[in-house]
Amino acid sequence: MKGERNTENPTREELAGYIKDNPGASFNMIKTAFRLNEGTLRYHLEYLIGEERIKMIKRGKNRCYVPDLFSGFRSNGSNGRELSSMERRVYTVIGGRPGITRKDILQALDIRRNDLYTIIRSLKEKKLVWELTDDGITRYEPITKEKLKGEVIAILIEKLLDEEIDMETFRAIKDRIES
User: Fold this and answer.
1) Could you give the count of Cα atoms lying within 13 Å of 93 in the half-sphere of its Cβ?
2) pLDDT at residue 7, as a whole number
């Protein structure tokens, strides 16, 4: 393992994929899934953190891991989405717990309510999070390509059922989205 910087490691790649598919997975969940000893797992997780591919967040006594959602936002603002350290912290929590409420974000980060409102407004303006309200409860989710694809396809299905588009148009647009 020593001296392997900048080389692909199959275990590490599988770990990164697992964390992407299971954001918020705890250290013990990952350890059980991969049947690795603690030292080996810790080494690989720290390597992925150092490479800025994943982040570790604390939930009580548990260490949980989420994909690093900022890989496209490190370019000194050239894409208009440079994030402050507080925005990154809030976005990391939302990314690790899609559907999280304001109350839970406040508890996880121990920040002032007014600061959170300002940060969430900024993340929404930067098109990084969605605000979803159901039964009077407001929740937040990161905007991802997969989620956007699903939303667009749902709209297309509605348009097809309402006969606003024909099946050929539906299939053409759907195929384009999924490619």
Assistant:
1) 25
2) 65
